[in-house]
Amino acid sequence: MASCTTASLTGYPLSLMRFAILITTISMAVQMACSPAQAQQSPPTKVVESPGNAVESPGNAVEASANDENIDFEDAPHLDNRQTVTIEAKWKRLGKNQIWINHEDKQVMVRGRICLQEGPLEMFACPGTTKAHESVIASEAKASEIHASFEALGFPPGKPVQWDPKYTPAEGPLVKILVGWQEGDKFVQVNAREMVKVSGTDKPMEKDWVFGGSQIYTDNVSGEKIYYADSGEMVCLSNFSTAMLDVQIESSDSADGLLFEANKEKIPPPNTKVYMIFIPRKSNVNPRTKAEANTKAQPAEFSSEEAKDAKAKSDESLAK
Questions:
Q1: Residue 272: C-alpha distances to residues 50, 130, 253, 277 (Å)
Q2: Which of 102, 79, 99 is nearest to 143 (CA)?
Q3: Rounded to 5 degrees, what angle do the CA atoms 273, 311, 270 make?
Q4: Separation between Cα atoms, residue 254 and residue 29, nearest integer Å
Q5: pLDDT digits (tens, 9 = 90+) for 195-215
């Protein structure tokens, strides 16, 4: 199994306070980006990979540096501002990680790298190298940044999968994911579901993901409330109550019962730079009443022991 050499992201996980600030900041950025004045200042710019090349449209260039508090340059050449595709002016860069928002079409774009082409999967995409050994793509943005972008575009989360007293699938907006990359002089784009198939078959994944929105847990040591999906559970293929995006069906995370595997025929070679476009839409599931939303949509909190175990797991994955 090939390893992914994309740089890991530090500052995981994100605290609840900083998460709230992030949502507010992204919402303001969206409003500014959509103002007529801003639109006039941002003509389309073709961006190709070449030494010293600036990123996308004028006024949106964000220089990355080894001192960036959000990025650990574990493998510096693989986390930079050189793009391999054309990024149109309607895409606005958010912060210093590789994430853009398109308010016009209500979409979010995140850059990442291919981690593996074959083998069983628990994740489709993870932040940095947190779960790169079981993911197709290692993202160069945090799960919390994508979550905040969805909210800024008017798509609040539903609720994660529940197991007690019985299995209840995640609820929330549905999210289609397109994955694109440059292949010679040709740009290739596929539906992310085509890159995943049902284990032991050639049957692709049938349904889009659900924005359940992960959970918040309390750090056993500091008492800080933490956004859990930044530890790895960004776009899941096995059910996790901590998933930002989950599958719509029951899917085990046991090693001998994983429902999905990578579809090598649809995945470019490891370390290929790819661009994921997240397209959220309203679910056709009957909306809950306001009272139900207030009581059920609140992020769950874990006990001190569970939080301690979760933090140790996160620290261990980031150290790999």
A1: 15, 18, 27, 16
A2: 99
A3: 20
A4: 41
A5: 999 999 999 999 999 999 998
pLDDT number for residue 88: 92
Rounded to whole angstroms, the Cα distance separating 207 from 237 reads 11
List of the chain residues with pLDDT < 50? 1-2, 5-12, 36-78, 286-308, 310-320
Cα 66 to Cα 113: distance, rounded to the nearest angstrom = 19
Strand partners, 227: 14, 216
Q: What is the pLDDT of residue 213?
A: 95
Query: What integer pLDDT is reported at residue 36 of this predicted model?
Result: 44
Q: What are the backbone dihedrals phi and psi of residue 266, each rounded to the nearest 5 degrees, phi first?
A: -110, 5
Query: What are the C-alpha distances in Å from 27 to residues 30, 94, 148, 172, 185?
Result: 5, 11, 8, 20, 36
Residue 311 CA to residue 317 CA, distance in Å, equals 10
Q: DSSP class of residue 225?
A: E
Beta strands 235-236 and 92-93: pairing type?
Answer: unpaired
